[in-house]
Each structure stands twice: as C-alpha cells, then as structure tokens.
Amino acid sequence: MHLVPADRADRRTIDGHRVCEAIAAIGDAGLLRTWAERFSLLADANRLALLLALHRTGPLAVSDLAVATGMNDPAVSQALRLLRAAGVVAGEKEGRVVRYRVVDAAVQGLLEHCAA
Question: Which stretches of the chain drop beneath a pLDDT of 50?
Fold first, then answer.
C-alpha cells in the first residue's frame, strides 16, 4: 500500500491494491479542486443554459442571452461575471457591444455531452 498517506497507513483495508489504485485515480488534490469548481459552475441551471447557448451558437451579447434564456439582463451579467472570473468565458468588445464565448476547453468538452 505504497500510495496510502502516512496519516491513514494504520487503517485496516480489505483490498489494499485497490486502495492504491483508487488513490491514483483520484489524483492531484489541486486538480480535483479545479474540477469540483468547474462542476459547481455547471450545477446552476441558469449558468448551464448560458454556457450551452454560447457553446452551440457562438458569441452572444448579454441582451441576446437574456432573451434566449428567459433571464433578465442583470442576472445574465452577474452570471457572466462569475464565469469570466473563473476563466470559462471571455468577452470581445465590438464598439459598445460585448459578445461572450466559451473559452475553457474542458468545459466545452463537458458541454458536448449536455442536452442534445
């Protein structure tokens, strides 16, 4: 049981080799936290709707996203601020209009498997 941390080494196991495999499967704690944060962003139905709209149609402005999702403009803006801060979306300004798009490749991959 070479992968079991010292603070858990005294615990009884049934299948020690599988415990090591499970620890290896869990991987790096930092990467695990990153994925958990991504999933928490997707766990909100409104944010997921915004991401699906952006993923499937390409760049859209806040007002267009509001109409498409049934949200109001301030709620869309707030959700996009959160997604932008997490590095999931980016905005491109054209004059007075900012159009948002999904830029996180991992999230794009997850969105491919959402609602067809």
Answer: none
